[in-house]
Design a protein that fits this description.
Chain A: Keywords: ATP-binding, Nucleotide-binding, Transport. Chain A: This is ABC transporter ATP-binding protein. Chain A: Belongs to the ABC transporter superfamily. The complex is a heterodimer of chains A (315) and B (289). In chain A, the strands form 3 sheets. Chain A has a 6-stranded mixed sheet with strand order 5-6-7-3-8-9, with helices on both faces. Chain A has 12 helices and 13 strands. Chain A folds into 2 domains: 216 residues, 3-Layer(aba) Sandwich (Rossmann fold), CATH 3.40.50.300; 61 residues, Alpha-Beta Plaits, CATH 3.30.70.100. Chain A starts with a strand and ends with a helix. Chain B has 289 residues and is mainly alpha-helical. Helices cover 66% and strands 4% of the residues of chain B. Chain B is built from 11 helices and 3 strands; from the N terminus they run αααβαααββααααα. Chain B has a 3-stranded mixed sheet. In chain B, strand 2 and strand 3 form a beta hairpin. The longest helix of chain B has 35 residues. Chain B starts with a helix and ends with a helix. The chains are: A alpha/beta (315), B mainly alpha (289). At the A-B interface, helix 2, helix 3, helix 4 and helix 6 of A face helix 1, helix 2, helix 4 and helix 5 of B.
């Protein structure tokens, strides 16, 4: 359980985290979403006490992290897989961490086996690939068999096998009743892993809900309609308050929003417009996220107005 | 993944603290090659230059230099250069945690920063002391083996030939000799601790090494250019002169320039290191990692 109350961090005149209050519950994977620079990493650093909050407080299992009797048994964190001394072997890296919490040395071998690094135990970590480094970081996080796990962008740069492995690991850890808190700027990734979502933009909490609620609340339900009489149906729908976009490549297909699917069907029936297809389109989490954070994105790419994709789609 | 909970961790008892941190820091310092290399380099430079210097002294000591000959300091002359190498380990012990990012992992496993800092400081102090004492004692004994027969020359005479061969060697049971040889080791260790303190303040390897060398060596060079009436006031406070009084049996520095006594001087020297280390500790605890 992680509880933040009014958590605030200011670097100079930049407000990185702005009065964040949230609770991360055990037994589920909580995704921490936000565009780059939204304050995800800073929030995680505040939870671990690496940075001191300007205001507010955060506790882990009811106490500030630094007050834990055995910190590694409370929280295992992977913030940056490269935050290790490359000249040290995997074994010694984990051993020096285990010793700080009076964990037995044999535990090092156990976690190395768990992440599949047994063969490179004595190798210096500077020769590790990105994926191996990530696994070593996860081994370190698991050393203390902690109740809370935090991962900052854990799938960055991993191959598909590694991504699948981390996904399954996070789900398994949550299924064991642990608190799993994972950040990402990839919405599609969270769609596969997270049960609950915390979304932040510019340091502020934008959403705190389940994945399903998030999509439902933040995306426009669309209906795909295929009809030989597309022009007539578009007129009818628009007159009824609906919004129509057409696909340039296929004149028989319409995408309709702002009208329920049933109403579209009734309109077609009442006006004798023949339908070949009537399909609800579920917006992906990615689209919902873009929709939600477009106001809060820190760094907009400069896109010439004529090329904005949204303007091409809309009729 | 069911193995996650199957693995056995003994139930937690007590509270993680200084003892575990000490073992951790010992593992850290012995498990990177740079420690071994820099320790070897310190020994090589200190003992090597001491040996060369003692060998030279035994072959060509001027008659007029006999009065100021210091069989302990002249046997450990390499310390002047060894201090410039041992500061590298002193700085890197802490600064490498920042340059690699390891500090964030370290403080995530043990967020009580005072414990981490204290354990690192204690382990490093022991390593530096053992290294320093090994260097000073080895240099001393090698030096004495040369000083049993020192060729004294009359450089002002017409022939410059050896006028006498004398035994200028000393031993640990003579007055102040043991204290001075131990002092040589202490001087090296405290030099390294000064660099440790700078590393805590600057969190940067090159910066900490530069600062330490400036404090230990550059100040010593610069005061050579001071006018006499300034030197009389300033010289004794220069780290090299303050700390250097301990590791010889004669006064270090200009003849008519007042210096601290051996232990007072060393206390001043250690005081400089202490200020850097304590200021470093305050910042280490307070700053965002």
């Amino acid at each position: 359980m992680i509880e933040a109350r009014g958590l605030t961090k200011r670097y100079g005149d930049k407000l990185a985290v702005d009065h964040l209050s949230f609770t991360v519950k055990p037994g589920q994977v909580t995704g921490f979403l936000g565009p780059n620079g939204a304050g995800k990493s800073t929030t995680m650093r505040l939870i671990l006490g690496l940075d001191a909050p300007t205001d507010g407080s955060v506790t882990v299992n009811g106490r500030p992290f630094a007050a834990a009797d055995h910190p590694m048994r409370e929280v295992g964190a992977l913030l940056d897989a490269k935050a290790i001394h490359g000249g040290r072997s995997a074994y010694h890296h984990l051993l020096c961490l285990a010793q700080t919490n009076d964990l037995p040395a044999r535990r090092v071998g156990e976690v190395l086996e768990l992440v599949g690094l047994t063969e490179v135990t004595r190798k210096r970590s500077k020769g590790f690939s990105l994926g191996m480094g990530q696994r070593l970081g996860i081994a370190a996080a698991l050393l203390g068999d902690p109740r809370v796990l935090m991962f900052d962008e854990p799938v960055n740069g991993l191959d598909p096998e590694g991504i699948l492995w981390i996904r399954n690991l996070m789900k398994a850890l949550a299924a064991e009743g642990r608190t799993v808190f994972v950040s990402s700027h990839l919405m599609s990734e969270m769609e596969h892993t997270a049960d609950h979502l915390l979304v932040i933009g510019r340091g502020r909490l934008i959403a705190d809900c389940t994945v399903a609620e998030f999509i439902e609340q933040n995306s426009e339900q669309q209906v795909k309609v295929r009809t030989p009489d597309a022009g007539r149906l578009a007129e009818l729908v628009t007159a009824d308050g609906g919004r129509v976009s057409t696909d340039a490549a296929d004149a028989t297909t319409l995408r309709i929003s702002r009208l329920p699917l049933e109403r579209i069907g009734d309109l077609a029936f009442e006006n004798r417009v023949r339908l070949h297809e009537l399909t609800p389109i579920q917006a992906s989490l990615e689209e919902a996220f873009m929709e939600l954070t477009k106001e809060a994105v820190e760094y907009h790419a400069a896109v010439p107005a004529a090329q904005r994709p949204s303007e091409q789609v809309e009729a | 993944m069911t193995t996650l909970t199957a693995v056995g961790l003994p139930p937690a008892k007590g509270r993680s603290g200084f003892r575990g941190a000490l073992r951790s820091e010992w593992t850290k310092i012995r498990s990177v090659r740079s420690t071994i290399y820099t320790l070897l380099a310190t020994a090589l430079v200190t003992i090597g230059i001491s040996t060369l210097f003692a060998w030279g002294q035994s072959g060509h000591t001027g008659r007029e230099d006999l009065a100021t000959f210091d069989p302990v300091r002249d046997a450990m002359f390499g310390i002047v250069f060894g201090q410039l190498v041992i500061v590298v380990i002193g700085a890197m012990t802490l600064s490498s945690e920042y340059s690699t990012g390891m500090i964030r992992t370290s403080l995530t496993s043990m967020p009580r920063r005072g414990v981490v800092y204290g354990a690192k400081l204690l382990v490093f102090t022991l390593v530096a002391l053992i290294t320093g004492l090994f260097c000073s004692f080895t240099s001393f004994f090698i030096g004495q083996s040369f000083f049993t027969s020192v060729h004294v020359h009359d450089f002002r005479g017409p022939t410059r030939e050896t006028v006498a061969v004398v035994d200028l060697s000393t031993s640990l049971d003579k007055p102040h000799v043991l204290q001075a040889v131990v002092g040589g080791g202490l001087y090296l260790a405290v030099s390294a601790l000064l660099a440790f303190g700078f590393a805590a303040l600057l969190r940067h390897t090159a910066g900490a090494i530069t600062a330490a060398i400036a404090a230990l060596f550059v100040t010593f060079i610069m005061v050579q250019f001071l006018p006499h009436d300034w030197a009389v006031k300033v010289d004794k406070w220069v780290p090299f002169f303050a700390g250097g009084q301990l590791w010889g049996i004669r006064k270090l520095g200009g003849e008519d320039i007042p210096m601290f006594s051996a232990w007072t001087g060393f206390a001043v020297f250690a005081g400089y290191a202490a200020v850097a280390i304590i200021a470093g500790a305050v910042l280490f605890r307070k700053r965002d990692a």
